[in-house]
Amino acid sequence: MIKILLLTIFSVGLLQAQQNPTGSRQAIHQTIRNLFESLSNRDSISLKNNCTADILFFEYGQIWNLDTLIRKAITKNTTTDFKRINNFNFIDTAAEGNTAWASYYILSEFVKDGKQSFIQWLETVVLVKDKKRWRVKVLHSSLIKRS
Protein backbone atom coordinates (compact mmCIF):
# COMPACT_ATOMS: atom_id res chain seq x y z
CA MET A 1 0.00 0.00 0.00
CA ILE A 2 2.82 2.41 0.87
CA LYS A 3 4.48 1.69 -2.49
CA ILE A 4 1.28 2.59 -4.33
CA LEU A 5 0.88 5.78 -2.29
CA LEU A 6 4.48 6.86 -2.87
CA LEU A 7 4.32 6.12 -6.58
CA THR A 8 1.01 8.00 -6.87
CA ILE A 9 2.45 11.05 -5.12
CA PHE A 10 5.54 10.89 -7.31
CA SER A 11 3.45 10.51 -10.50
CA VAL A 12 1.34 13.56 -9.63
CA GLY A 13 4.57 15.52 -9.23
CA LEU A 14 5.67 14.40 -12.68
CA LEU A 15 2.71 16.23 -14.18
CA GLN A 16 4.07 19.46 -12.74
CA ALA A 17 7.63 18.79 -13.92
CA GLN A 18 9.35 20.44 -16.84
CA GLN A 19 8.30 19.03 -20.17
CA ASN A 20 10.83 17.84 -22.75
CA PRO A 21 14.03 19.55 -21.60
CA THR A 22 16.35 20.55 -24.42
CA GLY A 23 20.00 21.38 -24.98
CA SER A 24 21.81 22.37 -21.84
CA ARG A 25 18.97 21.18 -19.60
CA GLN A 26 19.29 17.66 -20.99
CA ALA A 27 23.02 17.66 -20.29
CA ILE A 28 22.44 18.95 -16.75
CA HIS A 29 19.76 16.34 -16.07
CA GLN A 30 21.97 13.60 -17.49
CA THR A 31 24.86 14.59 -15.22
CA ILE A 32 22.57 14.32 -12.21
CA ARG A 33 21.22 10.96 -13.38
CA ASN A 34 24.78 9.74 -13.98
CA LEU A 35 25.81 10.73 -10.46
CA PHE A 36 23.01 8.64 -8.96
CA GLU A 37 23.61 5.79 -11.39
CA SER A 38 27.18 5.73 -10.07
CA LEU A 39 25.81 5.31 -6.56
CA SER A 40 23.45 2.58 -7.79
CA ASN A 41 26.37 0.74 -9.40
CA ARG A 42 28.73 1.45 -6.48
CA ASP A 43 31.14 2.94 -9.02
CA SER A 44 33.45 5.49 -7.39
CA ILE A 45 35.30 6.27 -10.64
CA SER A 46 32.09 7.25 -12.44
CA LEU A 47 30.98 9.18 -9.35
CA LYS A 48 34.20 11.21 -9.41
CA ASN A 49 33.73 11.91 -13.14
CA ASN A 50 30.35 13.53 -12.49
CA CYS A 51 31.47 15.70 -9.56
CA THR A 52 34.01 18.42 -8.98
CA ALA A 53 36.94 17.42 -6.76
CA ASP A 54 35.74 19.85 -4.08
CA ILE A 55 32.06 18.83 -4.12
CA LEU A 56 30.03 19.24 -0.94
CA PHE A 57 27.01 17.13 -0.07
CA PHE A 58 24.62 18.52 2.54
CA GLU A 59 23.00 15.34 3.84
CA TYR A 60 20.99 14.71 7.00
CA GLY A 61 22.27 17.88 8.68
CA GLN A 62 25.89 16.97 7.90
CA ILE A 63 28.44 18.19 5.38
CA TRP A 64 30.11 15.44 3.38
CA ASN A 65 32.92 15.62 0.85
CA LEU A 66 33.44 13.12 -1.97
CA ASP A 67 35.53 10.78 0.19
CA THR A 68 32.77 10.67 2.83
CA LEU A 69 30.13 9.80 0.23
CA ILE A 70 32.30 7.08 -1.29
CA ARG A 71 32.97 5.62 2.15
CA LYS A 72 29.30 5.69 3.23
CA ALA A 73 27.59 4.74 -0.04
CA ILE A 74 30.14 2.59 -1.85
CA THR A 75 32.95 1.22 0.34
CA LYS A 76 30.75 0.23 3.29
CA ASN A 77 27.96 -1.03 1.03
CA THR A 78 29.05 -4.66 0.68
CA THR A 79 25.58 -6.23 0.43
CA THR A 80 25.63 -8.72 -2.44
CA ASP A 81 21.97 -8.24 -3.42
CA PHE A 82 22.09 -4.41 -3.36
CA LYS A 83 19.93 -2.70 -5.96
CA ARG A 84 18.94 0.95 -6.30
CA ILE A 85 16.58 2.40 -8.89
CA ASN A 86 16.22 6.20 -9.08
CA ASN A 87 13.27 8.16 -10.48
CA PHE A 88 13.54 11.91 -11.00
CA ASN A 89 10.97 14.65 -11.17
CA PHE A 90 12.81 17.82 -12.23
CA ILE A 91 11.16 20.97 -10.91
CA ASP A 92 13.42 23.73 -12.22
CA THR A 93 16.67 23.82 -14.17
CA ALA A 94 18.63 26.86 -15.28
CA ALA A 95 22.09 27.72 -16.53
CA GLU A 96 24.00 30.95 -16.81
CA GLY A 97 27.47 30.83 -18.29
CA ASN A 98 29.45 28.02 -16.69
CA THR A 99 27.10 27.64 -13.71
CA ALA A 100 23.83 25.74 -13.53
CA TRP A 101 21.36 24.71 -10.87
CA ALA A 102 18.53 22.25 -10.71
CA SER A 103 15.86 21.28 -8.20
CA TYR A 104 14.13 17.93 -8.31
CA TYR A 105 12.39 15.21 -6.38
CA ILE A 106 14.11 11.85 -6.37
CA LEU A 107 12.39 8.65 -5.37
CA SER A 108 14.80 5.76 -4.91
CA GLU A 109 13.83 2.13 -4.53
CA PHE A 110 16.36 0.04 -2.63
CA VAL A 111 16.78 -3.70 -2.24
CA LYS A 112 19.27 -4.67 0.43
CA ASP A 113 19.53 -7.93 2.36
CA GLY A 114 16.35 -9.11 0.65
CA LYS A 115 14.33 -6.12 1.91
CA GLN A 116 12.74 -3.47 -0.30
CA SER A 117 12.49 0.15 0.80
CA PHE A 118 11.79 3.55 -0.70
CA ILE A 119 13.27 6.94 0.09
CA GLN A 120 12.12 10.26 -1.36
CA TRP A 121 14.16 13.46 -1.21
CA LEU A 122 13.85 17.02 -2.44
CA GLU A 123 17.24 18.12 -3.72
CA THR A 124 18.98 21.11 -5.21
CA VAL A 125 22.30 20.92 -7.02
CA VAL A 126 24.74 23.48 -8.32
CA LEU A 127 26.82 22.42 -11.29
CA VAL A 128 29.80 23.97 -13.04
CA LYS A 129 31.00 23.41 -16.56
CA ASP A 130 34.48 21.87 -16.60
CA LYS A 131 36.14 20.89 -19.88
CA LYS A 132 32.81 21.26 -21.72
CA ARG A 133 31.05 18.90 -19.23
CA TRP A 134 28.68 19.67 -16.41
CA ARG A 135 29.84 18.47 -12.99
CA VAL A 136 28.00 18.63 -9.68
CA LYS A 137 29.68 21.02 -7.22
CA VAL A 138 27.05 21.21 -4.44
CA LEU A 139 24.17 18.88 -3.60
CA HIS A 140 21.70 19.75 -0.85
CA SER A 141 19.26 17.04 0.12
CA SER A 142 16.10 17.17 2.24
CA LEU A 143 14.57 13.85 3.27
CA ILE A 144 10.84 13.75 2.57
CA LYS A 145 9.84 10.16 3.31
CA ARG A 146 11.45 6.86 4.14
CA SER A 147 9.55 3.56 4.02
Structure, described:
It is a single chain. This protein has 147 residues and is of the alpha+beta class. It has a single domain (2-146), classed as Nuclear Transport Factor 2, Chain: A (Roll), CATH 3.10.450.50. Helix content is 33%, strand content 48%. The chain contains 4 helices and 6 strands. A 6-stranded mixed sheet has the order 2-1-6-5-4-3. A hairpin with a 2-residue loop joins strand 5 and strand 6. The longest helix is centred in the N-terminal third of the chain and has 18 residues, at 24-41. It is globular, with a radius of gyration of 15 Å. The chain starts with a helix and ends with a strand. Mean pLDDT is 88; it is low at 12-20.
Condensed summary:
This protein has 4 helices and 6 strands, in the order αααββαββββ. The chain is of the alpha+beta class and 147 residues long.
Sheet with most strands: strand arrangement: 2-1-6-5-4-3
How much is the average pLDDT? Answer: 88
How many runs of DSSP E, i.e. beta strands?
6
Helix content: 25-40%
- Taken as a percent bin, the fraction of beta residues is over 45%
Task: Spell out the key features of this protein.
single chain; about 150 residues; alpha+beta; Nuclear Transport Factor 2, Chain: A; six-stranded mixed sheet; globular
